[in-house]
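Cont'd.
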Amino acid sequence: MQVNEYKPLIVAFCCNWCSYAGADLAGNNRLNYPADVKIIRVPCSCRVNPMFILRAFQRGADGVILCGCHPGDCHYTSGNYYTRRRMALLFSMLDYLGIEKERTRVEWVSAAEGAKFAATMNDFVETVAALGENKRLEDLRCKK
Amino acid sequence: MRKISLSKLPELFSAIAKTSALYLPVDTKAGAKFEAWAVGKTLSNALNTVRSAKDFFFPQTENLMDFKVEGKNIELIDTRKECEDFVLFGVRACDVKSFEVLDRVFLAEPQDTYYKNRREHALIISTACNKPQETCFCGTFGIDAAEPSGDIVTYRTDDELFFDAKTEKGKKLLDALSSITEEADEKAVDQQKALIRERLQKLPLKDLKTEGFGSGKTAEFFDDPQWKELSSACLGCGTCTFVCPTCQCYDIKDFDTGHGIKRFRCWDSCMYSDFTKMSAGQPRLTQLERFRQRFMHKLVYYPTNNDGLFSCVGCGRCLAKCPINMNIVKVMKALGGREDA
Amino acid sequence: MQEVTRDALLNKALELLKNGTVDRVLGYRVGEFSYDVTPAVFENEDALKKDFCWNSFCGANFSKYLISETAKTEKKLLVFLKPCDSYSFNQLLTEHRFDREKVYAVGVPCGGMLSGKDLREKVESVSDVSVNGDKVTVKTLFDGDLEFDFETLLSDRCKNCKSKKHVAYDELLGEDGEVLDSHRFDEVERLEQMTPDERFAFWQGELSRCIRCNACRDVCPACTCEKCVFDNPNSGVQNKAAADSFEEKMFHIIRAFHVAGRCTDCGECSRVCPQHIPLHLLNRKFIKDINSFYGDYQAGAEVGSRAPIVNYTTDDPEPSEAVERGHGNA
Amino acid sequence: MKRIGVFVCHCGTNIAGTVDVKAVAEAMKHEPGVVFSTDYQYMCSQAGQEMIKAAVKEHRLDGIVVCSCSPRMHEATFRKTAAAAGLNSYMVEIANIREQCSWVHKEMPIGTEKAIILAKAAVAKVSLNAPLTPGESPVTKRALVIGGGIAGIQTALDIADAGFPVDIVETKPTIGGKMAQLDKTFPTLDCAACILTPKMVDVAQNEKIRIFSYSEVTDVKGFVGNFDVTIKRKARYVNETLCTGCGACTEKCPMKKVPNEFNLGMDNRHAVYIPFAQAVPKVATIDPNHCLMLKSGKCGLCSKVCGAGAIDYKAKDEFLEERYGAIVVATGFNPISMEKFDEFAYAQSKDVITSLELERLMNAAGPTGGTLLRPSDHQHPHTIVFVQCVGSRCEACAEKGKEYCSKICCMYTAKHAMLIRDKYPDTDVYVFYIDVRTPGKNFDEFYRRAVEEYGVHYIKGMVGKVTPENGVLKVQGSDLIDNRQLHIDADLVVLAAAIEPDKSARPLATMLTASMDTNDFFTEAHPKLRPVESPTAGVFLSGTCQGPKDIPETVSQAGAAASKVIGLLCKDKLLGNPCVAHSDEMMCNGCSTCEKVCPYGAITYEDKEFRMPDRTTKVRRVAKVNEAVCQGCGACTVACMSGAMDLKGFMNKQIMAEVDAICK
């Protein structure tokens, strides 16, 4: 392993009912994924305000991923449908501003999909690591 | 007095830039703007820049200091650096005058060291206004666009630029430029001044007078019923204050970077509802009060505290940029500036 | 050129005042110059006769005044609406921002508006502007009279006018127009065709000019919050000035997001920006995406419509797919 | 500044194996607000909990962070611990350093570093936690069942059996629903009326149950525990309490040619009628569209013959307002219209009928007295073709059919085929099918009996066209197994029409703010785990309003819905989830955006007078969250532009503090 390997910082917003439980299941099954992923629990993916995502980038995150119940399975019936629209529009806007589209992602992970959770995180970390440090949505004041 | 052919301006700028950083108005798609000169950049022909020259001394945001908190200890970090010398080229008479207005605020005791640092390292090369705009009313405030102040004053004719050093600092720079400039007589400049004065007489706002305003007039205007109508369309944005060369209000805030605090200041606007908000609330609760504050400050409060000097220089930027076209001229006319002429 | 004259508007206002239909009139007041008109409420006949103005510089929208003036009093307010204003009018009604009962709306056809700001960047020392048919004569202080085609001076927002049709009024002066087949998304598409690096450079350049004067927000018919999150110390995102280029992006992304599905594309944000930032291109991106992802939707076209951002279908595109489509790749 | 205690759990070696728990506890000591930090082998154990309680007292803690397993595991445990120590139970945050740290990372330094960051995020969040108290609301101990079919009947009986009053609202003059129209039921072939009518009688005799027949729900306000419902009692022109159901009026009524909807229009009734012999309530109803007296004021015969004096031509619609703690939707289904299926000639020939029409033709109380006769010429049909999946599983024909499987058709078609072959062995019966779906107890056996014992011809394939020709129905179909075209001259064609939710369901869903799918079936709160609850608290689903079902499924769901209702009505007070949305009315614009995304209809608006900073007053429209209804998803918080809407327990500030802590 290289000593100075670049480690991206990933913030993962997980809905309480499906994806957070999916992450727990990944843990139960001892499925590895990089420690760069830090999970924040939210009741539903629709609780995630675009401001939180921008805030994460401002403070030094290199990638932000939202995980929620599969469409149709939302604990609150429709929350993830709103998430899907909001994030489709937000991500498209970020892309329009020239911000790498690979840094943001929405993934549907059910409580039974521990393996999918781990695989998703492995893939996302790899993708973001390949992009390198977030420069386009950084706040220079927050750099160490 | 020295002069240079306009065709040799790039040489001139290059020569100045060798001694210190040089900023001059250049055209951008968003209008004229002061930019650091670099080879290939040409001087704008616009009368004035969209933003005023105050940005050089009083930038919109500025870090004041950093501090770190660890446990119960606070470590202060002084982030100040000595400013490098720089030259501001092409400043108009109004903007030069605005520095005087700002100086009286920032250089009064206790002096603002951040401001002072930059002010002391600046050399101002002003330019007389060949073609004033209909929104110009610097004359109202006793400013002569044909005779700006500054370390060096320049006049531009069709093919030449004339230099007149007004301060020691200015003379020194002019001397240093003597190899690329030539001696000039004042005749051409006098002609140019006459042309400018003739043009100033054609300005629609030339008769706007300040006589009704000034020191000690608070009671006279404060409760004027016309404030209601004047302020009614005001959206409460900060455009007028931010393009104004003399508006000098700021707010000081702390930003938590996650590994320390940055204490910075940024422009504030008396048009904003949270301006000077205190624990007890806002002192000015309505847009009328905030609107009144801005103009009373320019026309009454500031002169009261500064030997009658008005804190408006008649640059006309607010006339050009207000989204709903309300401005100090309309206020002065409504409240009686003209009648006292 | 405005099809309906100042006198026609004035007479309508006088008539409605006289017959008691309205008590006050929201219109434009003459300024110092021909181009610097100001929105104003006229309380009586005399004030109207003296200062009422209607010309080709009456671009400003009345949204903020509709909200504040109707909240102040029970009196009935006459408002003149250009077609673009009528969309904002409906959007405000959809959001319950003013009481329709207190307003009498007169639709006025619009021949496109000129912008004093733009004009003065083309012509130095303007002393007077007069519009005759499709010609504009600009008198200058030092350069004599200049003549322009009305089209060439038309403000940017009007060049891409989406509709000459009023979607709200109690009464209409003159003939109503049609919804236009505008090219308003051309510029958005041009940006979409760029590489991400080019787009980033473009927006970095544009947004870096922002001075956070808030004019875009304060004039915007959709930005009608009692307290904007960017002014609210408790929101966690309050800021007065962009101390880092991140904050420029944050402000404009969030503002565009907050008006997504609500923005009527009136173009006021770009009109008032003292720094010439093409802010409407952010809003139009959202409009274009909404149309392409979820079907055509025009905010303000009807009162009470449900914006796509507060709606869904079970087979909406996934965000990843949407970003691809946002490129015009689909 | 808060006084926060951090408790790091070893979980034996589950955490301590990969995370240096002592280092985590040590690192937390330097976080702002943390006044106590320690580690322990099993925090969830009795001893661990006692340790937390003691620390709360000793260090006067007002916030607790437990670094342990997933909050889904022990959040409730530690909340109880906090409450036992005298703290508000919502002043606890869990840092998940087991499932999301020690179990997924292998190296101690990496695990420890991440655990510290997760703990910091939890500290940052708990610093902003505020005590939360679940809201309480009273429960009106009465239930409303909308729909009086077998689903509604069973639900009402079960609820009443538990001792709670129930009202049934039924749009038709009688309860009974579709089951009352059926002849026999699969797979046991017992008579539908024999098993249904006793239940109807039970309903009528149950003191806890009121039946509002010939009535509709027109408005619903309120929320779980307290729904205020307006019920429209349509004018029946017969006084229900006076009418004895003797039927004298129906015999004398001169308007004899009114199509009888109970028999699906295959025979006639009078303008004053009792739908069928066992109707409940057994009272007459005057059909105002056909009654001469009501239309022209000339007749009045029924009034004259009514010994009870129950006829009242001046009756008006009445509106009742009642309050209920729970509402059960049991609005049922209807076969879809066959009008658009030209290929089956339903509109052209009387002898092309739906399965439900066949039920009536085979029923002893039906138009033919139970003898199977063709509607056109009242002759015995000798060749009968059944067509399955008419309008079901029909992706290509969305405008006339349905994409879903109607579920019951395979079985009732087998039943029909079997009954016909049993009673009329000289009849040839063909069944065209796409698949035969028989997943149910004794279902497949039943179907095989139809094929094997009764000799029903099952043909895999679809009927392409039915052409009426000289009293014969030329049926053209394909046999996919033998790969050939079939031409059958049938006497009767029976269409297994898809079923769809009753038309009244959509407006009702709007009134209840209950969500529906694109087919207008009510959506359940969770498709697997809460199948009889609607996402709207206090609204329950019974029967086919939620999806196609057969009778046993309907009855079991009806019972399940009843038990959920009973569970709710047993409570004196409802304790809400305190993590609900809250609107800051000073910042609210009253724009109604939040209301649009609320899946529960928890947000309403009110005009409120505010004192403005300039000392004037202003009336503004502001949002109000009904905390008893809000489930705390947070959709509204993002829809709200001004940030007025926030979610308790997951406030904007809290989440941003977590983000900040993680990104430090």
